[in-house]
Each structure stands twice: as C-alpha cells, then as structure tokens.
C-alpha cells in the first residue's frame, strides 16, 4: 500500500510539473511587452472601423473619417503601398468591391487611384497624410498595415514616418508579423499590435501553418506586441483567454451593437465598432 501511495504521489508531482512547464511555455510564447509607451492615450476612446461610414458615406473615405473625428471617436483604418510608394487608405487588395473596377491597389500609382471613386459617390481613396490631420488634437488612430511579400518593412517605415509628422496619438497593428517585427527592432517607441481571429473558422486564404500560428498567437514570441487585436466573437480562444488573464492589453473588432461595445470596455479592451444597432449605452 505504501509503495502504491508513493507511485501515485510521484505521478501527481510529474503531472503538476508538466502542467507548470506547459503554462510557463505558453506564457513565454504568448506574452508581449508589458509597458509599451502611450497606451493610456489610446484608452478611453471608441474607434470607428474604417471611419464612421454608412448612409451613403463609403468606408475608408475622408467623409467617414471626418464624421468620426467630429463625433469624438478615434478611427481604425487600413494602409497599403501604391506602385509609387504612397500610403493609400484602402482595405481590399483589389478594387472591384470598393471602386467597381478591376485591378490591384499595389499595381497602380497614387494618381491612378485618385482618379477612381468609392462606391458610386464623389469620394475617392484618400492617403494617410490626408486622414491624420483630421484627428490631430482630437482622438487617436489605429492603423492596420496591409502588406504584400515585398512591402512589410517599407510599409511599416513609411507609415510611422508619415504619422510622426502630425500631432496625433496612434498605434499600429497587422495580421502579418513581419512589420511588427520591423517595429520591434527599429521603432520600439511605437505601440504595435498583433491582429488575429480564429482562422480555423475564417481561413481568409491562409495556409495550414498560418491558420494554426495566427489563431494561437504563436508569432508573439518574435514580435512581442503591446496588444492583441482579436475578432470579438472569437475571443473565447484559449490563447486570448490566457493573454487576458496575464494582463495583456486587448482590442476587439468588429463590434456591431452598443451592448458589445460596453462589454468590450468592461473587459478593458479598445472597442472597434461599425454600424451599431440598438439603444446607445454608456460605460459604467
């Protein structure tokens, strides 16, 4: 009997050590930088996803960003490099959905993009240096870097150099870990965030490894982000729950009701919202 108790005790200790080792390994992989500069300047704002668009105002347009700034909101926006190295504010890689024409934004010059119109309106694709002044002295920006295989470091560099020209608070985020790694090495003063979601539910063209790595935030071990920006409906993922438990800063996208906005704020996450429905609720 005594020998049996010793065996059981040894097995229990072994299991406990394995659990502790796994927990410590997960912390080492997932956790980012604890004290990235300037988070307090972003906290307390609500962020309009691609501007405050709708009712004839296209997403990622100057009109949408002007509406957001005038309403006291920050904004989330997307930037891509044009063929001639300008920072175009556009979400999609292709132009058919937003402009009704074929082609890729990265293959056109800034002048060619400026000649197009958004969603049948008179609004055109803006550039980052046109959007930033709208928020100077008002509210922060969350800037998502949309990369291709050639542009990761160049896009990160041009984006922060542009934003630094204005009196504006901002952070930078991306699904692609490469620009975040560039920021970690060359611009550690800039708040950086790893974007993600459950890529097993939303493959988004990602290969098997990227679906696994992005869903579970494995790239954090290299990029050491200041925050994780995760799809709101997927925030129950184990990696996200661990990050929250360890005090990692969070942002949630894309919230579509005031109830979700308030819930995100109660979880101390930056709320990125779009087309909110239901009665407006305030933070308690």
Automatic annotation (TrEMBL):
It holds the Pfam family GDPD. It comes from the Bacteria. Gene3D superfamilies: Phosphatidylinositol (PI) phosphodiesterase. Residues 44-284 form the GP-PDE domain. InterPro entries: GP_PDE_dom, PLC-like_Pdiesterase_TIM-brl. This is Glycerophosphodiester phosphodiesterase. It comes from Oscillibacter valericigenes.
